[in-house]
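Structure first, sequence second, as always.
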């Protein structure tokens, strides 16, 4: 994905990309096409790019192990400045372009933000109850009938201490 900037006038420009995830080098869990909506604000010596990314992914739920599809979204902003990069540049979202640059390449940024959109905890539903620790039944399908109120005997002394503190 490239945006040709040499022929753009100053001002706000919108671009839409709809391509296959394979073109970015993305593999599982991603599938199908991704969409990127780009708003590019070109000024005299800088370009501010705002991008909204949408893509499909397939996960296994971390609680119940059910396979599900999810739509991931991510937004990011990049600032492109004309000139040479300072030696001590620690900025993450600032890229320096040579004065004669004629295009902006988006593939690496979109790939990185697609990977960052993967959730730390993958859940098929926000209220997924997971699997029963005794029998392994998926609790979202219904109660399994197992007794869950039993206390591990190793915790009984601590439970007694808690009861003493609550009575005082």
């Amino acid at each position: 994905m490239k945006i040709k900037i040499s022929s753009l006038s100053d001002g706000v420009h919108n671009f839409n990309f709809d391509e296959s995830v394979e073109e970015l080098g993305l593999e599982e869990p991603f599938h199908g096409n991704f969409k990127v909506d780009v708003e590019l604000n070109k000024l005299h010596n800088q370009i501010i790019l705002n991008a909204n990314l949408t893509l499909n992914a397939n996960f296994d739920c971390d609680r119940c192990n059910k396979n599900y599809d999810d739509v991931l979204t991510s937004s990011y902003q990049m600032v492109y400045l004309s000139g040479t990069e300072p030696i001590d540049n620690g900025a993450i979202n600032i890229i320096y372009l040579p004065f004669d640059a004629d295009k902006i390449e988006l593939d690496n940024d979109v790939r990185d933000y697609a990977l960052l959109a993967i959730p730390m905890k993958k859940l098929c539903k926000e209220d997924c109850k997971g699997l029963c620790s005794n029998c392994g039944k998926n609790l979202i399908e219904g109660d399994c009938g197992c007794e869950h109120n039993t206390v591990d005997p190793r915790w009984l002394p601590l439970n007694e201490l808690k009861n003493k503190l609550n009575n005082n």
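Margin note: Residues 130-168 form one domain.
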